[in-house]
Each structure stands twice: as C-alpha cells, then as structure tokens.
Automatic annotation (TrEMBL):
This is TetR/AcrR family transcriptional regulator C-terminal domain-containing protein. Keywords: DNA-binding, Repressor, Transcription, Transcription regulation. Residues 23-42 bind DNA. Residues 1-60 form the HTH tetR-type domain.
Length: 186
C-alpha cells in the first residue's frame, strides 16, 4: 500500500457511494487495513480529501498549456470546458473540488495568466475572469450533479422545463467571455 493506492481507492469509494460516504473507516475496510494505518499517509480526513481533489483534477492539470499562437478567446473557452469535463468525471466531483487550494498547479496557473496578459487582457481582468469562470463552472457542475443524484427522489413539476446542462453552461460561459472581450476592447 502506498499514498497513490490509498487515493485511488478513496476515489473509487467516492464514485461508488458519493462524497458523504467517504470516511477513513470505510476506506480502511476497502483496503483491508486498520483505520489508524491510513494516518501514515494522511493525518486528517481533510488531507485525504485534498489529495483526492488533486488526483481527480489530473486530466485538467495535464491538459496542454496555451501557446503564443492560440487565440486567447478560444483558449479561455476550451480551458473552462476542460475544467467542467474533469469535474464531471467523478461523482460529486464539484463538491470534492470546491474549496480546495490548487497547490500542485500554481506554475500552470501562472503560465495561463501570463498567456492572457501577453494576449492583451489586463492583469486584473484576467485574474477576475479566471476566478469567475472557475466558480461558475463549479457551481454549474454542482447543480448538474445534484440534478442527477440517484438519492434525490423528488420529481419536478410537470410544467417545469427540463434543464439542458450543456446549453446552460455554454450560455453562461459565453456571457463571461463576452464580458471579458468587452473589457479588453477586442
């Protein structure tokens, strides 16, 4: 057993049972170890959740960085879509990620910010746009994952139109991007 195996098994538990069911007791049982042995790898459940969030974000964290030839508007939209896809890969992915601190990818974040600034986006606007897009994406995925939660047995009223999560996300992303384009005068 190693740290990566513990995280992988914890993510398996997350996908099977949801975030509320992830506990060190259940994880130890799945790993056929005593619960205190997990503290060798993670001092607290919060540390375990942070490692799970980082591992769950791996597909987005390894996506290609922008190049100087990229159009910043296309890149911004594609980067936000990649973030959404990654959150949707895991049950309760948005809940797991919400509130986590991006400790492992600070260099990547700086390179993304440098790209936007070099493309003519004012630094403060680039910061706020990345923050707004990230929070919008997490909120959208939270709602989408809550809408598909098998434990939720409530039926919406018949006259309430079904939400097309993809279209709603794209509409919100377009509003954020158009606002940023307006701010840059592009």
């Amino acid at each position: 057993m190693n740290r990566e195996a513990v995280v992988a098994e914890a993510l398996g538990l997350l996908d099977e049972a949801g975030l509320d069911a992830v506990s060190t007791r259940r994880l130890a049982k799945r790993l056929n170890v005593e619960q205190p042995s997990l503290y060798w790898y993670f001092r607290t459940k919060k540390d375990l959740l942070a490692a799970m969030a980082q591992a769950a974000m791996e597909p987005h964290a390894t996506a290609p960085l922008p190049t100087p030839q990229d159009d910043w508007r296309d890149w911004f939209a594609d980067n936000t879509r990649s973030f959404r896809r990654t959150l949707l890969m895991r049950r309760d992915g948005a809940r797991l990620h919400a509130g986590s601190t991006p400790t492992g990818d600070l260099d990547r974040i700086r390179r993304k910010m440098d790209f936007l600034i070099a493309s003519g986006v004012p630094e403060r606007d680039a910061q706020m746009a990345m923050l707004a897009a990230g929070r919008f994406t997490i909120g959208s995925v939270l709602e989408e994952q809550a809408d598909t939660n098998p434990a939720d047995s409530t039926t919406p009223p018949a006259d309430l139109p079904a939400i097309d999560h993809d279209s709603a996300f794209e509409a919100g992303l377009t509003l954020i991007l158009n606002g940023l384009i307006h701010r840059t005068g592009a």
